[in-house]
């Protein structure tokens, strides 16, 4: 425009003149002389201008223009700028010529006003104030910068208002004013940018430079007042300046909200791929940041804002909302079981605990009871449901893996570990129950209901697992029987399997005691009974398979009993006792309840096999001498067995007498010298052991060797009518013993 060109021309000429006056060092001494000379020239030009300004139309325009500037102080200021800050008398001279031109141009009164507005603000050097404001912004002197910006805006707004009042439809002139003050709009945006940077970092700034934050808040408050004033004027006049209302307070809260969201989202440093504990870390960083931020907001930030801003509660709501959004995002991810637990524990417990919102330093402003849930109950239920199904498949997998690992140990060439009491064991029960414990502790962090559900799940899976354990132990035994040299430590690992049953029983009781409420006991009683029964079967079958080992080794020696060789003085029973004792040195590593059962069972089986040997009719005594010798040997061997099993059962309180008595009672029948008393002796035997069958008696009389077929017949028939007087503690033993009827099977063997 002509105005800007004139401006530039005047300034350029002024600079050239001053430069020309100060080309040599000695000219510096004459600065005062030059200044006085320029002042005289300036006064002369001013006098000429005064003549023009005294004309009526000029006075009128000046009056309107000055009135538009708003207040007395500003008017003086603008006049001061007009006559003191122009670039030397060249500028005034050129501008005075322009002024004269305007007045001579014959414009209408209204047009003259419009041109004069521009003319007047050229004097005011808007660009100069803009530059100064820009410098202040760059230096961070935001309050002063804002003061100048307000002055500029006030001038522009009043000009526009005056223009609007004179001719509201003249958009051309309105746009001219708007364009002229265009740089001012950029200044406002630049200042706002600085304010928002401070707001974004308000929690840091408030610790380092609270005055800066207070300045920002004061600027926002000033703008809010101007907004209100402008909106009031709009109601009255319909006019509002461009860019109003600025709504900087609202923007400030929006920026705080975005900052809080970014702060929460930005705490996820890792992913599952880079760190399995990514979620735990993420949640812990959030907890720490939020607590720290809110403590700073309460103690420091609150003091930098007017009370009506209610800054702490606003921030508290922002954090709660941002957390809620973040937790919902996390809940929607494909979380693993442990991650679901971490999330739920944090959401349901940590958030309201003393480690976070329940922190005593946040009280009473933060009331945890009035905080809304971070995620809805529906989402919580979905997560719990997913957790339970994931946990179920995990537990099945863990149990299967644990059993596979344990089975690998069973074929090792080294003995299993022993516990502190010397009992063999494997790590299986410890691994299984440690896994259960971990999951129960985790579930307990969330709530009581989940803990109970997880316990039920663990015990339900334990039930299925024990059935597999039983099957595997059976397969282990079957594989061993194919080749008894392998595995090398079969006996020791079978003992460990038996002992594990006892450990499992104790662990189930302990787990229930620790994690199950008494009122829930009934819900588990049936599954507990079922597990105990399975464990008893595993232990019993294990003990039985170990005794099978013993008796497979005893077989050749048992086959010697009741033979000619035996009668002539074989040491079969001595070898039997040594072998049993040797095995029981290993069996000492079996835990008490099962060891006691083992000893009783071994004792019983030895006696059964001995009686079976008698019933096999491998020998038939030829005379009284042989009968006496055989019977005495039987009594002596019964005593050897009695001594052995007394020793093995030491301290177990087991009654081992009764079984060996049976051998002695049979020996008495064989030893008898008077055949007429045979019936009486046999009937005594039958009354004590009522499960003796006719074929047993027939076999016994055959071994005795002196009873005719008729005598056998008579004794057996008479016995059928006799009363029985068994010992109340007697456990039938003869029913297990079969008597061979023909010798054909023997031949086939």
TrEMBL record:
Example of a GO MF term: SNARE binding
Family matches, as Pfam families: Sec6 (PF06046)
Domain of life, per lineage: Eukaryota
Keyword vocabulary terms for this entry: Acetylation, Cell projection, Cytoplasm, Exocytosis, Golgi apparatus, Protein transport, Transport
Subcellular location field: Cell projection, Growth cone; Cytoplasm, Perinuclear region; Golgi apparatus; Midbody
Transmembrane segments: none
GO annotations of cellular component type: exocyst; Golgi apparatus; growth cone; membrane; midbody; perinuclear region of cytoplasm
One of the GO BP terms on file: exocyst localization
InterPro entries xref list: EXOC3/Sec6 (IPR010326), EXOC3/Sec6_C (IPR042532)
Function noted in UniProt: Component of the exocyst complex involved in the docking of exocytic vesicles with fusion sites on the plasma membrane.
Family, as annotated: Belongs to the SEC6 family.
Assembly description: The exocyst complex is composed of EXOC1, EXOC2, EXOC3, EXOC4, EXOC5, EXOC6, EXOC7 and EXOC8. Interacts with EXOC3L1. Interacts with BIRC6/bruce. Interacts with MYRIP. Interacts with SLC6A9.
Name the record gives this protein: Exocyst complex component 3
Native source organism of the sequence: Eudyptula minor (Little blue penguin)
